[in-house]
Design a protein that fits this description.
The complex is a heterodimer.
Chain A (H helix, E strand, L loop, with lengths): L6 H35 L9 H16 L2 H7 L1 H8 L5 H25 L3 H9 L4 H37 L4 H11 L4 H29 L5
Helix pairs in contact in A: 1-2, 1-5, 1-7, 1-8, 1-9, 2-5, 4-5, 5-7, 6-7, 7-8, 7-9, 8-9
Chain B lengths: L1 E12 L2 E13 L4 E5 L6 H7 L8 E6 L2 E2 L5 H10 E5 L10 H11 L4 H14 L15 H13 L5 E5 L7 H18 L2 E6 L2 H7 L2 E6 L2 E7 H6 L4 H9 L7 H10 L4 E9 L6 H8 L3 E12 L2 E11 L2 H12 L4 E4 L5
Parallel strand pairs in B: 3-8, 3-9, 6-7, 7-8
Antiparallel strand pairs in B: 1-2, 1-4, 4-5, 9-10, 11-13, 11-14, 12-13
Helix pairs in contact in B: 3-4, 3-5, 4-5, 5-6
Classes of the chains: A mainly alpha, B alpha/beta.
InterPro entries (chain A): AA_ABC_Transporter_Permease, MetI-like, MetI-like_sf
Pfam family, one (chain A): BPD_transp_1
Subcellular location (chain A): Cell membrane
Chain lengths: 220, 342
C-alpha cells in the first residue's frame, strides 16, 4: 500500500520526533514557568512589583516570541554549534525549540497566574505567608489547571516546530517527510509521516485534557 | 486589645488625594464584638485592613494585641498576623484545596507538623459545623458553608483577634443569621475579640456589643449598641437604625396616629435589655383601671438583650392614665407621651 515507506526508518524518525518534543517540552515547561512567574510577580503590587525587571523580561519574551521559528533556527546556528557541537540531528534542534517555545509558554503562565483572584493572595498574606510561600502554596497550585493546559498547547506547537527544524537539518518525521517524501516525490512517505505527527498531537491533547479535568477543582 | 490613635490613611491617585480614613482614634476591648458600620466608600474597609496591616497607615499609630503595627519588621508582622485573623466577604478560599486542606493552610505556613494539623482540622470542622465535608472542594459548597471554612481557617492558629471584612454581605439573610450565630458562639467559647465591618444594621444589632458609625473616613458616632439604637445622634446613624425598622424619628407617624386615635393617650415605650423580658405592661394594667390598645411596635433581639419600641394607646381616666405611666416609668422603661388629647 505504501511502496516507498521503510517502516524501520519511519519508526526511528517517530521516536526522534517524540524525543525532541519531550525534551524540548520539559525544558520549555521549566524555563517558561520560571519566566512566567517572574513576569507575574514583577508586575503584581501584592507580590514584588518591579517595573524595570518586568520591562526587561517582557521585552526579551516578546522578541523571541515574535521571530518566526524557521528564522530563529537559522539565527541560532552559531549558538547551537557552541552548545551542541553540531547543527545536524535531533539534539541540535533542541536549543531552537526551547528558545522558540519557552517565551510563548511564559506568556501563557503569566496569563494563568493573572486569573487567580487577588483576594486569595491577600488572604494568604493576612495569614502571615511569605512571598515564597505564596508562590508555591498559592500561585502554583491555584493556576495549575491553566498551567497544564498551556503546556499541552505548547507541546502541540513544539511538534509543529520539530517538523520545521527537520527541514533545516533536524531529525524526526518532518525531516523524513521533507527529504524523503517531498524532494524525492514519494507522496506515500509524506502521507504516513503526516498521519504519525497527527497521532502524536492527538495523544498529547488527550493526555493534557484528561489531566486538566482531573486537577481542575473550580467547578463542582 | 486594639488601640488606634489619630489614624489616617490616604491614597494618592491620578485624580488627587483620596482620604479613606481621617483621624480615627478608638479602643477595642478584649473579648468584645465591635462593629463598624458605614456605606460603601466610608472608609470602613480600609480601616479594618489597617488592623492587620494589609494597608499601612499614612499617619497615626495602631496597637494590636500589644504590638505597634507600624514598627514591626516583616518577620514580626507575620507573627502578629498569625494572631490577628481575617474573614473575607468573598471567602478567598483556595479552589485547589479541599475543606480540610484549606483549614490546614495557615498551619502549614507556620510549619505545624502534619499530625497536629490533622487534629486541629478535625476540631475546627466540628466547631464550625462542617463535619463530613472535609474532603469536599470549595466549588461543591454553598456560600454559607464556604464562609464556615473561611472562619475555621481564620481560627486555625488560635488568634486573639478575628477581623470580619463584610463577612456576611455575600450571603442570603438566613445564611447570614447562621454565620452570625457562629461568630457569637466562637466569641463566647474562645473569648475572641471580633471586629466586623458591615453596611447592614441588622448585623450590628444582632451580634455587636459596641458600634462605630463611619462616614467620609471619620467615626461620627460610637457607643454601646443599645444606646446608639435608642438615641442615634447623627443623621447617618438614624438612617441605619431605620434600616432594621426600629422606629425612631416618629414625628410623622405621630401626626398620623393622633388623627386615627383621637381618644386616650398615645405613649411610646422604649424597651432595653431585661425590661423587655418582664411582663411590665400586664402588671401595670392589672393594678390600674385602664384599657390599652397596641398600635405598633418593634422589639428585636440583640447581643445585650431585647431592644425595641412599642406604641400603645392608654384609655381611661386621665388621672389613672397618668399614674399608670408613672408606674411604667418606675420599671426602667423609657416613656414618651406624645399627645394630650383626652
Amino acid at each position: 500500500m505504501f511502496p516507498n515507506v521503510d517502516w524501520e526508518i519511519m519508526l526511528e524518525e517517530t521516536w526522534q520526533t517524540i524525543y525532541m518534543t519531550l525534551v524540548a517540552g520539559g525544558a520549555t515547561f521549566a524555563f517558561g514557568l520560571a519566566l512566567g512567574m517572574i513576569l507575574y510577580v514583577t508586575n503584581e503590587p501584592l507580590m514584588m512589583k518591579n517595573r524595570s525587571i518586568y520591562t526587561v523580561v517582557s521585552a526579551f519574551v516578546n522578541v523571541f516570541r515574535s521571530i518566526p521559528f524557521i528564522i530563529l533556527i537559522i539565527l541560532l546556528i552559531p549558538f547551537t554549534k557552541i552548545v551542541v557541537g553540531t547543527i545536524l540531528g535531533s539534539t541540535a534542534a533542541l536549543p531552537a525549540l526551547i528558545i522558540g517555545a519557552a517565551p510563548f509558554y511564559a506568556r501563557m503562565v503569566e496569563l494563568a497566574l493573572r486569573e487567580i483572584d487577588r483576594g486569595v493572595i491577600e488572604a494568604a498574606e493576612s495569614m502571615g505567608a511569605t512571598k515564597w510561600q505564596i508562590i508555591y502554596k498559592v500561585l502554583f497550585p491555584e493556576a495549575l489547571p491553566a498551567i497544564v493546559s498551556g503546556i499541552t498547547v505548547t507541546l502541540v506547537a513544539i511538534v509543529g516546530y520539530t517538523a520545521m527544524a527537520g527541514v533545516v537539518g533536524g531529525g524526526g518525521l518532518g525531516n523524513l517527510a521533507f527529504l524523503d517524501g517531498f524532494q524525492r516525490s514519494r507522496n506515500d512517505v509524506t502521507f504516513v509521516a503526516t498521519v504519525l505527527i497527527l497521532v502524536i498531537v492527538f495523544v498529547i491533547q488527550f493526555i493534557g485534557d484528561r489531566l486538566v479535568t482531573r486537577i481542575d477543582k473550580r467547578s463542582a | 486589645m486594639i488601640q488606634l490613635r489619630n489614624v489616617a490613611k490616604w491614597f494618592d491617585t491620578k485624580n488627587g488625594r483620596v482620604q479613606a480614613v481621617d483621624d480615627v482614634s478608638l479602643t477595642i476591648e478584649s473579648g468584645e464584638i465591635f462593629g463598624i458600620i458605614g456605606y460603601s466608600g466610608a472608609g470602613k474597609s480600609t480601616l479594618i485592613r489597617l488592623l492587620n496591616r494589609l494597608e499601612s497607615p499614612s499617619s497615626g499609630t495602631i496597637e494590636v494585641a500589644g504590638s505597634e503595627l507600624t514598627k514591626l519588621s516583616p518577620k514580626e508582622l507575620r507573627g502578629v498576623r498569625k494572631n490577628v485573623s481575617m474573614v473575607f466577604q468573598h471567602f478567598n478560599l483556595l479552589w485547589s484545596r479541599t475543606v480540610a486542606e484549606n483549614i490546614s493552610f495557615p498551619l502549614e505556613l507556620i510549619g505545624v507538623p502534619a499530625s497536629e494539623r490533622k487534629r486541629r482540622v478535625t476540631e475546627l470542622v466540628e466547631l464550625v459545623g462542617l463535619a463530613g465535608r472535609e474532603d469536599s472542594y470549595p466549588s461543591q459548597l454553598s456560600g454559607g458553608q464556604k464562609q464556615r471554612v473561611g472562619i475555621a481557617r481564620a481560627l486555625a492558629t488560635n488568634p486573639e483577634v478575628l477581623l470580619c471584612d463584610e463577612a456576611t454581605s455575600a450571603l442570603d439573610p438566613k445564611t447570614t443569621d447562621s454565620i452570625l450565630e457562629l461568630l457569637v458562639d466562637i466569641n463566647k467559647k474562645l473569648g475572641l475579640t471580633i471586629v466586623l465591618i458591615t453596611h447592614e444594621m441588622h448585623v450590628i444589632q444582632k451580634i455587636c456589643h459596641r458600634v462605630a458609625v463611619m462616614e467620609a473616613g471619620k467615626v461620627v458616632e460610637i457607643g454601646q449598641v443599645a444606646d446608639v439604637f435608642q438615641h442615634p445622634e447623627q443623621p447617618i446613624t438614624k438612617e441605619f437604625v431605620k434600616q432594621i425598622g426600629a422606629v425612631d424619628d416618629m414625628s410623622l407617624t405621630f401626626e398620623h396616629l393622633k388623627a386615627r386615635y383621637p381618644s386616650g393617650q398615645i405613649v411610646k415605650l422604649k424597651f432595653l435589655n431585661e425590661t423587655a423580658e418582664q411582663p411590665i405592661l400586664s402588671d401595670v394594667l392589672k393594678t390600674h383601671d385602664i384599657g390599652f390598645n397596641i398600635i405598633g411596635g418593634n422589639v428585636t433581639q440583640s447581643q445585650v438583650g431585647a431592644l425595641g419600641t412599642l406604641f400603645i394607646q392608654l384609655i381611661g381616666e386621665p388621672a389613672e392614665v397618668e399614674r399608670a405611666i408613672a408606674s411604667i416609668r418606675s420599671q426602667a422603661v423609657e416613656v414618651e407621651v406624645e399627645n394630650d388629647v383626652s
